[in-house]
Design goal:
5-stranded antiparallel beta sheet; alpha+beta; Rieske Iron-sulfur Protein; 4-stranded antiparallel beta sheet
Length: 171
């Protein structure tokens, strides 16, 4: 008696189709891998370039002392910060970032306070929390006054837990 071969459920045509689909999926995966690698390397390169540029610009000039009145707050958009002249002619440079969840703050001239549009935290002109949910004051940047020019060290933002007069610069 002759032995019969098991009948394959796949025809040669189906095997060729399956092989073609496998090759297409492999090609798609390879292209995706290359794209992700390129995207990741470009992100790292741009971050490195941005950090290098900041290292070259340690200080920015924010204006002349005589151009500020006590109680005045000025936005410094190129550094993403506010410069405040406190009532006793002390200066403090404050981050525009809310310490609650990182939203961008706005200075409300009418209410004389910083307001977070996301969750309603408010801060006085020295960056001290007035209303929650933020629990700590705004971070600050060191300020120097040289020959009547206000200079802010933008590469050295400092986290703070409370307000201290040493965080300000007196004229």
């Amino acid at each position: 008696m002759e032995q019969q071969r098991p009948i394959s459920s796949k025809t040669p045509r189906q095997s060729n189709r399956r092989a073609l689909l496998n090759k297409i999926w492999a090609l798609i995966a390879a292209v995706a891998f290359i794209e992700l690698g390129w995207f990741g390397s470009s992100l790292l390169k741009s971050r490195k370039t941005r950090n290098t540029q900041l290292k070259g610009i340690r200080y920015i000039e924010a204006g002349r002392v005589e151009s500020f009145k006590p109680g005045q707050v000025k936005a410094v958009p190129e550094a993403m910060l506010f410069l405040a002249c406190l009532e006793d002619n002390r200066f403090i440079a404050l981050s525009k970032t809310c310490t609650h969840l990182g939203c961008a703050l706005a200075w409300d001239e009418g209410q004389q306070k910083f307001v977070c549009p996301c969750h309603g935290s408010t801060f006085d002109r020295a960056g001290i929390v007035l209303t929650a949910p933020a629990l700590r004051p705004l971070d600050f940047f060191p300020v120097r006054i040289e020959d009547g020019t206000i200079r802010i060290e933008i590469t050295k933002m400092q986290r703070r837990e409370s307000f201290d007069e040493s965080q300000t610069t007196r004229v």
